[in-house]
Amino acid sequence: KAGVTQTPRYLIKTRGQQVTLSCSPISGHRSVSWYQQTPGQGLQFLFEYFSETQRNKGNFPGRFSGRQFSNSRSEMNVSTLELGDSALYLCASSGGTIYEQYFGPGTRLTVT
Amino acid sequence: GENVEQHPSTLSVQEGDSAVIKCTYSDSASNYFPWYKQELGKGPQLIIDIRSNVGEKKDQRIAVTLNKTAKHFSLHITETQPEDSAVYFCAASRASGTYKYIFGTGTRLKVLA
After folding, report:
1. Could you tell me which of B91, B6, B105, B87 has the C-alpha nearest to residue B49?
2. If contacts are CB pairs under 8 Å, which of residues 33-92 in chain A contact chain B?
3. Is the peptide bond before A39 cis (omega within 30 degrees of 0)?
4. Is A110 on the interface with B (CB under 8 A)?
5. 3-state SS assignment for residue A83
6. Secondary structure of chain A: what % helix, strand, coil (to 5)?
7. Predicted pLDDT at A97
8. Which residues contact B27 (CB under 8 A, 6 or more apart)?
9. Is the pLDDT of residue A2 over 90?
10. Per-residue pLDDT averaged across B49-75, rounded?
11. How far is the C-alpha of B37 from the C-alpha of B12, rounded, in Å?
12. Would you call A45 and B102 a contact, using CB atoms and an 8 Å cutoff?
């Protein structure tokens, strides 16, 4: 089975721009969660989608948004980028009845 | 609020020795505790997990113990090898209707050959 894939792997954006990141979960998994990883704050939960509905949300500003499609693929969007948004953005997928989450390789976003 | 404390932040051991990483969680409703290993340039990889109805779980050289009363859980790696060098994260989750994980701050393990 293919693992979680994320595109692009690396991205450089300018302050004020917006960005869209994509995640394809493991086949058959319906839950997709997003995390932000920075050296200072560690791994922080952004939001979780299950069957196209946002099921949980972390403590991030409204500039961070996401969505999930009927094939379970998910995108997250960050608008009006700030320097502090530079981070590794990780996507994780889960099946319906298991507790485990499996992570993708991440998208490294650099905001200049 | 929900919090997971992880210690130590760095750990150096000689090859063949054991390594222990400890975590403490605050949310008493947490019932699922995974451990992840993250190598440079990669996403976290699930290496072992434990549920609240179990006190200990072992998988070859790695084991996890859970003390629900004290809200402590620990990762034990025996007979460490250079390839065990990585950053290890613990996490806690309620695992009920959501997959939100609260992660510890990570432990950088160095296994010296």
Report:
1. B91
2. 33, 35, 42-45, 48, 55-56, 58, 90, 92
3. no
4. no
5. helix
6. 5, 55, 45
7. 60
8. B2, B3, B92, B94, B102
9. no
10. 94
11. 16
12. yes
Of A42, A100, A106, the CB nearest to B105: A42
CA-nearest of B18, B27, B15 to B74 is B18
Q: Could A99 and B97 be called an inter-chain contact, meaning their C-beta atoms sit closer than 8 Å? A: no
Separation CA A71–CA B28 (nearest Å)? 35
**Preceding peptide of A8 cis, ω within 30°:** yes
Chain Cα centroid distance, residue B103:
10
| pLDDT of B1 above 70 | no
Residue B96 pLDDT > 80: no
Whether residues A55 and B98 touch (CB distance < 8 A) is answered with yes
A101: chain B residues, CB-CB within 8 Å = 34, 46, 99, 101
Q: How far apart, in whole angstroms, are the C-alpha atoms of residue B38 and residue B40?
A: 7
Q: How far is A42 from chain B (nearest CA, A)?
A: 6
DSSP states of A39-74 as a string? TTTEEEEEEEEETTEEEEE-S--TTEEEEE-TTS-E
How far is residue B25's CA from residue B72's CA, in Å, rounded to a whole number? 7
Chain A partners of B32 at a C-beta cutoff of 8 Å? 99
Residue B76 pLDDT exceeds 80? yes
Q: Residue type at B47?
A: I
